[in-house]
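Hi W.,

Here's what went into the run:
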Amino acid sequence: MASRIEILNEGGFRSDGRRQFELRTIEIDLAQQGQADGSAVIAHGLTHVLVSVFGPREARMRSHTMHDRANINVEISLAAFSTGDRRKRSRGDKRILEFASTIKSTFEPVIQTTLYPRSQIDIFVQVVQQDGGLLQACINGTTLALITAGIAMLDFVCAISGGVHSTSPLLDLTNLEENDVPNMTVAVMPKTQKVSLLTMDTRLHVERFEEIFRLAVEAGSTILVEMKAAVLGRSSRLIESVDSSTQPHGLGVENDNS
Amino acid sequence: MVEITVLKRSRTEAALTQRKFFKKTAKGKVFKVLRERYLRDDVSCGIDGCKICHDTPLPSYGDKNHSSFPDGHFLLPDTNVFLSQMDLIESPLFGPPIILLQTVMEEVRHRSLPLYNRLKALTRMEDKKVWVFYNEFRSETAIVREEDETPNDRNDRGIRKATQWYAQHVALRSSSIRGQDQNSPTILLLTEDAANRFKAEKLGLSALSVRKYVEGMKDSPQLLDLLAAEGSDEIEPTRVATGRQVLYPEYLSTGILVAGVKAGSLHQGHFNANQYNYLEGNVSVPGFNKPILLIGRENMNRAVQGDVVVVEVFDEKEWKAPADEVVDQESTLKDDDAEESEGEGDAEKSGQLREKEAKMVKVEKIASLRSLERLPTGRIVGVIKRNWRAYVCHIESTSLTSSNSTSLSIQTVFATPVSRLLPRIRLRTRQAPTLLNQKILVTIDRWDATSRYPEGHFVRALGRAETKEAEQESLLLEFEVPYRPFGKAILDCLPQQGEQWVVPPKTESSKEWKDREDLRGLNICSIDPPGCQDIDDALHARVLPNGNVEAGVHIADVSHFVHPDTPMDNEAAARGTTVYLVDKRIDMLPALLGTNLCSLRPFVERLAFSAIWELSPEADIVNVRFTKSVIASKAAFTYEEAQIRKDDPHLQDDLTQSIRLLNTLAQKLKAKRMAAGALNLASPEVKIHLDSAESSDPIDVEQKEMRETNSLVEEFMLLANISVARKIEEVFPQTAVLRRHMPPPKTNFEKLQDLLEKRKGFKLDVSSSGVLAKSLDLCVDPDLPAFNTLVRIMATRCMLSAEYFCSGSVGKNTFGHYGLASSIYTHFTSPIRRYADVLAHRQLSAAIGYSPLHPSLHSKAHVERILEVVNKRHRLAQMASRASVEFYVGLALKARGERGGGTGVTEEAFVIRTFRNGIGIFVSKLGIEGLVTFKKDMLFDAENYTMTVAGMVISVFDKVVVRIEVEKDRNTHRGKVKMTLVSPIDSKGM
Ligand SMILES: [Zn+2]
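Here's what came out:
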C-alpha cells in the first residue's frame, strides 16, 4: 500500500527538495533549429518544450489574411512519450486545441502585429517531456523563439505556475503538485507589470488567489532575468562568430532596462 | 516580501537528481513517471554550536549520561527501531537526542501509518529532542539505488552514509574549537540488524543494538521492560523452532487477499469481538447485510478487536447461529500456564485445552431451526491492518511463578485486558511481583501462528487498581482520550490579559466592537445543570409590537479567541471534544476560555454569536438573522430554579416573562418536530451524587430528572443548529460542516421486532422514523411503567450513530437527521466543548460577511480529515463517560452494600436476553446491564426467548429482582459486579 507523498513537509521542503518559492532549474537553448526563423528549447525542471517560429511570412491561406495586421497561428504537438500515458494525441485533440488558443491569445496583444499586415506568424510548439508547468514552459519558450525570430514585441512575456497547499503558496509546480493542489498559471509583461494570461482550472479562495497572484507576478521578474541572460548570451555569441557586416537577428524587444 | 530564486541543478548530478520510471495501472495502462530531486547544502544538522548550519535545537554534545559515551552522543536509529521499539523511545526515561533521518521517516510511513503518526507526535513533544534531518535532500548524503540493490539495502546504505556524514560534520566542528581538548560526541547508529552493524563498523562508525544500548543507560531495568518482544528464535536461538505446534492457519499473502476482495470471493471489514463469549466474533462487510460470524479460535485466527481483516464466507449450509451461551475466558483458561504455553510444547495439555474450547463452540443441534438467527459464517484468512494500541491490563496472579517481591528474574506472565473484547496477552517482565494489584499498560507486539496468545510488553504502571487516579487514567487511556496538560505554545495563544480580560469599552475604534451588535440591554439568561462552569449558551425572548415574538440564542464567541491554524486550534481539533467523567473534565480548550472568557456568566459582558428569530405566536419562523454581539446575561439558572420561577404566579418580572415566553414557544416547536416524525429516544442516564468535592466518594445513584426547562433549552438549541446548518450550507455548499443521522437498515430491528411480538404482542413498524415513533408510543405495559423506556433504549441501540460530515462529500439526499426528523442539521451551540461547533462558527461568521473564511475551510479534503478525527473522538468520549459512570455505580453499590451489612443491594430489573446458561438483565434505576449466570445449562427455548430455572419460566421483558454485589476477583484483583436472582426464585448457589 503506497502512501501519498507529502507535498510540503514539516521541514519546509517540497517533494523534490525545493522550498516554497524556489523555482526549478531553467535551461534555455536558443540555437537555430532546422529552417525556423527563430527557435528556443526551454526546460523548467523536467518539462521540456521546443518552440519554432516561422515568419512573418506571406499567409498561405487567403482566408487567414488580414489587411491590417499579421495573423498568428499556433500548433502544438506532443512527443509520444511526453505525457503520462503512452497514447499519442492527435493535433485535433480538444485539450491541445484549447492550449493552442490560450497561447495565441496570450501573444496577440504582445506581438506588434500591425507592423506585419497581410502576413502570418507560425508558432510550432513541440512538447518533448512534461512534469508540470507545461503552459508556463510553452509561453516562455514562445517568447524566446519570437525574440530570436526578430519579431517586434511590446515586452517579454514571462509565465509561472503557482498553487496553494493548505495555506502555503508554492511556485513552479511539478506534475505531482499540480495533481494535488489548486493551481493557476500567470503570464506577466515585466516592464508594464501587465498580466497577459491567467488560467485556473481548480477553485481557489480569493485571498489565496491574491497571494499567489502577487507572488507569480514577482516570480515573472526572476524568470525574466534568466531569459534575458540567454538572449544576451546568444547575441554576443552571434556577434563574436559572425562577420560584423552581417546583421545578427535583431532583438525584437526594445531593450531598455538590461 | 519573500525571496524568489531559481535552483540550479548541475548536469553532472543527473544520475542523483532525476528518475524516470514506468508505472502500470490496475487496468494495464502504462504511465511514465518523472521525478526530480534538488540537492542542497543548506539542510541543517540541527546541533547547537555548529558553525555551518542554522536552526540548531539539539544540545551541543548530545547526551553524556550513557556509560559508554562520556564525551556525549547522539542517536541515529534505523527504521526498524521505530517500528518495533516505539514505547521505549516514547518513555520519559529515554532522554538522549535523536537524529531522525528523512529516509527512516518515509520508510516508517510506508510500513505503518499509526506508528508514523506516533513518530510525528514524538518530534513535536516538548520534552523530547528529535531533529529531522532531510538526508535525501542534502548533497553529501543523498544516494541512488544501485541496480542490484533492494530498496531495503538502499535505505540501509543511505542511513549509514548519513551517519558517516554526521560523524565527520561534528568532528569538523570540534577540531575548530581552539585550545580545547574536547573529543567530539559520538553519532551512534542504532540498529537490530547485525549485518548493518558490521558494515557500519567497517566504515569506522559506532553502532549498537537497542538492547546493548539500553543496558548501558541509567534507568536500564525499567527501560529493558519496554523492549518489544522479539521473535523467540532471536531471543533463544537454541530453542528448536520446529518443535512448535502450529495452532492457527497461516495468513494468505497480501496480494491474494487484495485480489480476492476485489473479485468478491473474500470480504474485508473490521473485527468485532463478542463481549459475552471470547470464542466468538464477527465482521461487518459490505457484501452482506448481516455481519459474518466467526466461531472458535482458529476461525478468528489471531484477530484483535478493531483489526481490519479479510474473511472467507463458508457455504450457506454451514452457516450457524451465534452462541447462546456465556463463555468467559478467565474461567476457561485459568489453568493455562504462561511459562509453558510459551513453547506450546506440552502437546497433551494443549490438546486438553483445545478439547475444552471445542466443547464451548459445539454446534447446537437445534440451531438450524432458528433460521432467523442464522448468520453468514466464515473464517479469517488474513489481516490487512492491525489496530493494536496500548491496553490497560491486570497481571494474573496465578500466572506468576514467583511472587517474591524482591525477585528480579524474568517471568512470563499473562496480562488480562480490562476490556472484555480483548484476548489475554503474554509478556515477559522482571517486575512481575511489583505489578500485581496494579493497573498496567501493555502493548501487543506480535501474534504468531504457533502461539495461542499474543505476545506483548509492559509499558508502564498506572497505579493501584481501584484507586481513583489509576482508574481515571486507565479509562482515559482505554478510550484514547488526550489528557496531557496544555503546552506552552498552546497557552501562548490565550489573550495576554488572562483572567483580567474584559470586553473593551464601546468606542468607534475598538476592534472588538466593530460590526458587533450591542445586546447588553436584553434580558438574557442561561439555564444549565447545577454546577455548570462552561456556559456556552444563553437565551432571551420578548414580544414585538406586531404581536410576533423575538427569540434569541446567544452562543459563546469562541472563534473570536481561537484562530485557525494556531497551536491552540490544532490541539482543539485533535481533542475534538471535552470529555466528561464523573469526577473530572478533560477540556478541549484551556480553562481560561472554557470556564471564564467564553463562559456566558451572569453580570459580566461577554462576546457572543447570536441567532435571532422573529417567530409567529405559533412558533413559525418569520425570519432569522445571525450577528456577532456583546451580551450581559442577567442570570444563570439551574433547570430547577428556572422551573420554579416559571411556575411561581407571583413573579411577573421581565426575566420570568421571558422564560415563560420561551417555554410556550418551545412546547410548540416540540409539537411540530414530533408531528414531523422526530423520535423520542432514550439512553440510560443516571446521576452520581458525590459526597463532597474533595473526597468524591459516591454516596448514591439516581436517575436523571427531566423538567420542562430541559426541553425548553433543548428546543431552542435544535432550532439554532438547524437554522445555522441551512445558512452555512447555502453559502458553502461544498464544505459546510453538518451533522447527520442516517436511517437504520430495517434488518437492524428484526430481533427486537420478533421479541416484542412474541413476548408482548406489540408490532413495531420501522418503515420511517415517524411511524416508528408512533409504534414506540404504543409499547406500553400499564403494570410496568419503565417498560416503555426500556423498549426505547433497545430501539436506540438498533440505530446508527449520528456523525459529522462535509456537505460536499455526500449526496444531498443523505443530509437528513433521522432521529430529529430534520432535513439538515449541524452543531453550533457548544463551541467551548465541541470542535465541530468551532468550525460551524467560523463558517457562519464568513457567511454573514463578518470575517473571511480561512482557506482550510474551503478545502473539502481538509474538512473531511478534521471531521473524521472529531467523529472518532466524539464516539470514544461518549464511551469514556459511560465507563466512568459505570465505575462509580460500582463504587456506589459497594458503599450501599456495606451500609446494608454486606449482603449486597437488591434492585428491580428487566430481563433483556436469555442464554443457555444465564440471563442478561438491565437495571433501569442504575442504568447498568449485567449477567446472571448459572453453573449448568438450563432448559432453554431460544425460539421464544424463555428459559426454565428450577421450574420457573423466565422470559425476556420479565421483571425480576436481582441482588447486586461487587466482589473482587481474586486472580486479577479487579472489582466485578456480580448479580444473582432474588425473585422469582433465588439463584444463589445455582
Ligand atoms: Zn551543522
